[in-house]
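dumping this here before i forget
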Amino acid sequence: MKKRTLLTLTSIVAVMAFALSAFVYEQSQLRKNKTADTPASELVRMHSPVFGAASAKVTIVEFFDPSCETCRAFYPGVKDLVNAHDGKVKLVIRYAPFHEGSEDMIKILEASRMQDKYWPTLETVLRMQPQWASHDNPQPDLIWGFLEESGLDVEKARKDAGKETVATVIEQDKTDLRTLNIKQTPAFFVNGQPLPKFGYEQLKALVEQEVKAAYP
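structure:
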């Protein structure tokens, strides 16, 4: 019964987070539409994790917080968009550590890249999010107990997470967040264009539009 109640509460929180994200996103886009085009250099950095073919002509940039319930809900669908387009679409992850504990989790993700285990580690982090990412009492250290199943050398990752190169990645992404005026997650851009309205169907439609334009 307790487990069922927890799952129900988690679902309610995710729905509420999605609704709030949609509202904040639309308000943010109203402001962005009054500004110049988004500089490409501030959307994609050399250090940014990429899922999909490097040669893909359509790029989804997602500003992502590991603690964000809506990011967790969107992830399977975004990954499906990449996989469904046979090398024409790629996903670039940018970090937006808005919640307490998120920077610690990003350090772990960056450490996993040094072992070529980024994507399985990310999926473990998202799957276990309800356990470690409580906004009232986040406990990011709990994730270490689940990471061996991702094939990660946990002891090495603990050391690598503290490297200066990891801190530099986080600081650059935070700087770009401020420059781009990103206030909530997930925030999506497709070939430099923000979504006209927040939602998965809107993201899918913009991706399809850009695929048709890039691959006539």
